[in-house]
């Protein structure tokens, strides 16, 4: 199948485009949220950059939507309506914002575009209304068991920790920094020490490294810390587990289901997390043993093959769904386009 999708979430897209199809990614001269294309990623040749404005509408077999606004963008450029005369599915990456648990999903009022949640918690948290829903859990291209744990430090991966604050547990980082020095990876990590009051010698902002470099450098840290309060399920956590790192994880959203206790600790008790982090930093042998358990669990539940098989099944179903003439109900809208949603 030839599948149109925007490059929105890099790590998820990295897994998705390694499947068995042809992937069409809109690209614009300035890049940005609507034209990132491959963005220099080392992806298969089956991933093609396209100019959506000149793309032949018949060259698209299905569209994988990730933002409500993409529906109108497809109609405007291709003249085909997702869910009506173009097979479509909507991937929900995020937890609901605002009046949880009473937040309706943007596609809750329709039944032609299936909504795929990336975690079971997401499915539970959103009011999905009449939309067909399913869950396809994350898949991770295995980076290999790179863990060395040679540095008695704590690794954290978070994008925009200063702006996102309590959502990503940034306020918890000073307590972890009192246990061991932090290495913080991700976009816009500069200014973290000043924003949190952590002594500069106790935190190193590593910035946004290329994936291979991130994996290698993160795996040198003794323990991975995941302090996220309200994100769907950070793929960085699953990547750290694949690397063979022991993990210290705040027990929120999907994390308790994703991480077995033998991989480290999963708890809503911050003091317990701190004690475990300190113990693992001081005991390299235990850290390595728990890291092996983390890797085994991640490979079993979040392996790339299982992810691709689930998606192949869904895409085959999409192709076989009956299509409706575009003028069947001319006044019908799939949804009212929502405001631009930003990463929490």
UniProtKB/TrEMBL annotation:
The lineage of its organism: Bacteria, Bacillati, Actinomycetota, Actinomycetes, Micrococcales. GO terms for molecular function: glycosyltransferase activity. SUPFAM superfamilies: UDP-Glycosyltransferase/glycogen phosphorylase (SSF53756). This is D-inositol 3-phosphate glycosyltransferase. Residues 322-344 are annotated as: Disordered. It comes from the Bacteria. Coiled coil: none annotated. It holds the Pfam family Glyco_trans_1_4. Residues 325-344 have a biased composition (Basic and acidic residues). It comes from Pseudarthrobacter niigatensis.
């Amino acid at each position: 199948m030839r599948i149109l999708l925007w490059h929105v979430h890099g790590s998820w897209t990295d897994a998705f485009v390694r499947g068995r199809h042809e992937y069409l990614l809109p690209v614009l001269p300035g890049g940005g949220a609507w034209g990132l294309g491959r963005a220099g990623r080392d992806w298969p040749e089956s991933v093609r950059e396209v100019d959506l404005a000149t793309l032949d509408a018949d060259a698209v077999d299905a569209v994988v939507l990730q933002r409500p606004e993409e529906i109108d963008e497809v109609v405007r450029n291709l003249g085909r309506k997702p869910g009506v005369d173009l097979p479509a599915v909507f991937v929900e990456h995020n937890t609901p914002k605002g009046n949880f648990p009473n937040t309706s999903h943007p596609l809750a009022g329709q039944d032609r575009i299936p909504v795929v949640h990336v975690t079971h918690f997401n499915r539970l948290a959103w009011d999905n209304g009449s939309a067909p829903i399913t869950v396809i859990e994350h898949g991770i291209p295995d980076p290999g068991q790179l863990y060395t744990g040679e540095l008695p430090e704590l690794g954290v991966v978070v994008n925009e920790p200063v702006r996102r604050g309590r959502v990503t547990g940034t306020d918890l980082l000073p307590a972890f920094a009192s246990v061991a020095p932090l290495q913080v990876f991700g976009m816009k990590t500069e200014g973290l020490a000043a924003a949190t009051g952590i002594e500069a010698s106790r935190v190193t902002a590593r910035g946004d490294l290329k994936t291979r470099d991130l994996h290698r450098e993160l795996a040198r840290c003794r323990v991975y810390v995941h302090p996220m309060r309200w994100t769907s399920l950070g793929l960085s956590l699953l990547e750290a587990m694949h690397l063979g790192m022991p993990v210290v994880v705040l027990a929120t959203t999907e994390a308790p289901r994703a991480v077995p206790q033998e991989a480290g600790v999963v708890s809503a008790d911050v003091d317990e997390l701190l004690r475990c982090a300190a113990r693992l930093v001081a005991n390299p042998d235990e850290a390595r043993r728990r890291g092996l358990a983390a890797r085994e669990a991640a490979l079993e539940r979040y392996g790339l093959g299982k992810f691709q098989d689930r998606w192949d099944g869904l895409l085959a179903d999409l192709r076989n769904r009956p299509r409706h003439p575009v003028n069947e109900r001319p006044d019908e809208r799939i949804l009212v386009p929502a405001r631009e949603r930003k990463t929490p």
